[in-house]
């Protein structure tokens, strides 16, 4: 159990996608946008966002541009994947717990590192908040990020599929779920000594 001052990193990536279900030969999703919210002592202490140039399939499909509402020019002016890893290693210096919505972000990051022959940048714990949410509420299916926050009667931050906005939305759900966990955790049962004031009892029998 981490203490209150334990650092957390709320992370979201957006990826390239093929034009349709028929993937080009050798295609795999590459990170093209990163959003990070760094939290210590329940306070946002840093945030970071950037577009990332894909290495292996540098030209975005029309479907990808439309779905993520981004342009080829924005991606072409982004940081390299090597620079992204450098940034992530910098954030890892405090060994934060990395929290994502779903497992895809970390899977794609690992695969991209492998393809680029770069070391995986994180050394601490990773938590999949979507899986925690599903288990906590007994959901049959894993809900999407925006649907989950709406089930709390809240709205997501900014635009869906904007990496930094989704990282902030993940942080907001984390706070709500942690609050619910504390509320529902049963306090320890009092001992019989705590339930009965023996000094008062003895006085009564002494009369």
TrEMBL record:
<dbReference type="InterPro" id="IPR036397">
    <property type="entry name" value="RNaseH_sf"/>
</dbReference>
<dbReference type="InterPro" id="IPR012337">
    <property type="entry name" value="RNaseH-like_sf"/>
</dbReference>
<dbReference type="Pfam" id="PF00929">
    <property type="entry name" value="RNase_T"/>
</dbReference>
<dbReference type="GO" id="GO:0003676">
    <property type="term" value="F:nucleic acid binding"/>
</dbReference>
<keyword id="KW-0378">Hydrolase</keyword>
<dbReference type="GO" id="GO:0000175">
    <property type="term" value="F:3'-5'-RNA exonuclease activity"/>
</dbReference>
<dbReference type="InterPro" id="IPR047201">
    <property type="entry name" value="ERI-1_3'hExo-like"/>
</dbReference>
<keyword id="KW-0540">Nuclease</keyword>
<dbReference type="InterPro" id="IPR013520">
    <property type="entry name" value="Ribonucl_H"/>
</dbReference>
<feature type="domain" description="Exonuclease">
    <location>
        <begin position="7"/>
        <end position="183"/>
    </location>
</feature>
<keyword id="KW-0269">Exonuclease</keyword>
<protein>
    <submittedName>
        <fullName>Sporulation inhibitor KapD</fullName>
    </submittedName>
</protein>
<dbReference type="InterPro" id="IPR051274">
    <property type="entry name" value="3-5_Exoribonuclease"/>
</dbReference>
